[in-house]
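Entry type: protein chain
Record version: 2
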Amino acid sequence: MTQTDIVECPNCKGLMLATVNKKTKTCPYCGTRVDTGKAKRLARAETAMQASEMLRKLKAERQINAHKSAQK
């Protein structure tokens, strides 16, 4: 099984999935080529399916936090 990381794009702060054995990944939001070894890793999952669920939750949390910040 290939482990999957959730990493943050250093340019736009978008979150993306990256398999552990891949060295680079193109950000789907801004097109930046991201060095996955140097990128901020937010989580690691044993399967892509687990990583996808984690990613969904992290994105939802970010939206909630952004909404709360906007209300202040």
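Comment: The chain has one domain: 4-71.
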